[in-house]
């Protein structure tokens, strides 16, 4: 009861290194941008004992301490000189008098005897003017000690190291020394949350050890110093790996997350102010119930409800995700049986995308704990018509959806029975259902095959609709006695066409044309209703919803697009489970960068639309303050590529742009954030996203580059940005950045860029190719170790992604892929921008070791040159899509955007563009 295509995302877009990917889709899976502390040291925090902010808050409690702490942040040597000048000739109680030239050892004494140092420094600096600081008012001198206490592993260690002093007890393994030194000052240590804090030797970035190994590919040996970071065990990673990742997290926490906590909270509040915290979906009627869901202010997760169609009916909560006991919750399908008596839902509690299937008796309200299915299940659930059997997918050893199984609730056997097995490792399986059929899809990057079971006939055998043929992709839906087939006809109809056949003969020889192939119209999805066929297609870079009457396997009218009157928008059909296919009305949803959501119902018989719901931006939101534009960037002549079967391909790259009118100058002085993806044929939607407004309201331009490899301009756009044309994706992005500079939207020094997963590959590649492309880069769960990953068939997705990137076991593909692999092409003679890298320890799509190795190698090559910063943050309890819970996700994005704003503000001040 899901949609013809959207339910089985794997059919024309298999499971890959990303799911829905865009910061524009109301948060979705956003990762944002980097900040700019110095490369040398951690920021310290001055805390007044009486008015201390929360641990990690960087707002100084006492203004007069800020200068010395700022100097410590900028460079340990500056802090040392300040302390030397202040105490060189002062006798400090509890410490020996410092002979000339030895005042440097005071820093060592702070760590060696913190209980004495507190009183000693208070006495020493109470009335002494320290260079760069005002005189200490009575009672406030203690704040400098608190500041040093919080960063005992930070400022003290770095300052001492800068002047050549060894600090007693401060070996790498002596975390306890750090924690106790801070604790004895009465201040919580900023880094105490991670045992790895003490590895921040002299406050330099964590340095990953080098253990060179040799990979031999095509008879050539390639050295890999950081292969040791790879551990494929699902649990209990090697201790040295966890220690390194925790060191990176502690470093990024102290350098960025603690320092920008106040800014992060501000950005978070601004984002939340742009969402409807209380919201309900449009009810879907499944007699005798209306089903819908809600989110409630202050709660992280969705609540699922239903209500009978009787006058005295009361609202029934059948699943409240907020009441589940798991810390991390990634919900898959939530599905009620056809008789409305049993609930089944799929839940991933680690981010590994291994789902557990839970059942609940909706008549008693009790969980059916004896029926719970644990293991490696997929997220899909489809009920059979008997309301007792569910169809599920299961994963193999490399996390490939390889099987379809059936499980009967209440049966004696608790072991699901195998319905379908896919032996070819290039293929994943997926399922969907209509009233009559269960469809099973086996899909690779370029080929598909559909099998089906007639659920209305007991004991019906599984049938293959049409045996797979290499490079032929198709998908089917039933309409009475006929099947409608959306197909690329083996590639000849690259943008897909529609065929039809009678159920009695499904062989390709019996297919007839339902509508003529239009190479300028990329058909994305199809829904079938009582008397109408509905198509969602991309035409001219925009989504169109097209309706036409159908009867007895033939179209009986013309194709009419529904009018959508927006300059930039995203249009989606609601899935079959949210449609009444026995009627002649279709539900669709529109979103624009300024309108969160409009749900419409279109009467296909009368040609009229009725708005069922509109989600508005809360508060006094004035959309007229903002401008939406789309520009078209010429494709560089040297990268123009012919698509298969001479399919028409645009000669310009669309770029969607948004900015606030009163803050935009178009003289090159506005900062600009450019987002890109460009893989798997995925279109980055121009939809509403609350996360954009905090930077728009700070004068930023927000832009999306709809580059080749993505699907914004149809299948030809995708095909000319994959395989041996993959570099077009990167050159397109660079061309867009240069055009934006040329048109004076910004300048490279004021640009930030972002991409995640395969978009993280984009970030790594363009930074290698043009290191000065931007001042800030955000790379979320980046696919950057292309060769080593694609040469290892034991890693999830490797084999079935041969049909996306190419098979590097073929030397020609190997050389081409190696030419752009970010990990293999880091220049040693260039300075990189500030880079924030995000990873997830449980990520099954882009393993944590890829970003970890990339960061380690960039650091070893000193790409920052002491002027920029590279930070790695690995979420230790989540996977590819980050933290769970809507507020937690917004907080994560806000923290990342704080890095972007902090970096850019520093740059703008340096250029005299910000006070």
Automatic annotation (TrEMBL):
<feature type="domain" description="Peptidase S9 prolyl oligopeptidase catalytic">
    <location>
        <begin position="693"/>
        <end position="905"/>
    </location>
</feature>
<keyword id="KW-0645">Protease</keyword>
<dbReference type="InterPro" id="IPR002470">
    <property type="entry name" value="Peptidase_S9A"/>
</dbReference>
<dbReference type="InterPro" id="IPR023302">
    <property type="entry name" value="Pept_S9A_N"/>
</dbReference>
<comment type="similarity">
    <text>Belongs to the peptidase S9A family.</text>
</comment>
<keyword id="KW-0378">Hydrolase</keyword>
<comment type="function">
    <text>Serine peptidase whose precise substrate specificity remains unclear. Does not cleave peptides after a arginine or lysine residue. Regulates trans-Golgi network morphology and sorting by regulating the membrane binding of the AP-1 complex. May play a role in the regulation of synaptic vesicle exocytosis.</text>
</comment>
<dbReference type="GO" id="GO:0006508">
    <property type="term" value="P:proteolysis"/>
</dbReference>
<dbReference type="InterPro" id="IPR001375">
    <property type="entry name" value="Peptidase_S9_cat"/>
</dbReference>
<dbReference type="GO" id="GO:0004252">
    <property type="term" value="F:serine-type endopeptidase activity"/>
</dbReference>
<dbReference type="Pfam" id="PF02897">
    <property type="entry name" value="Peptidase_S9_N"/>
</dbReference>
<dbReference type="InterPro" id="IPR051543">
    <property type="entry name" value="Serine_Peptidase_S9A"/>
</dbReference>
<keyword id="KW-0720">Serine protease</keyword>
<protein>
    <recommendedName>
        <fullName>Prolyl endopeptidase-like</fullName>
    </recommendedName>
</protein>
<dbReference type="InterPro" id="IPR029058">
    <property type="entry name" value="AB_hydrolase_fold"/>
</dbReference>
<dbReference type="Pfam" id="PF00326">
    <property type="entry name" value="Peptidase_S9"/>
</dbReference>
<feature type="domain" description="Peptidase S9A N-terminal">
    <location>
        <begin position="205"/>
        <end position="614"/>
    </location>
</feature>
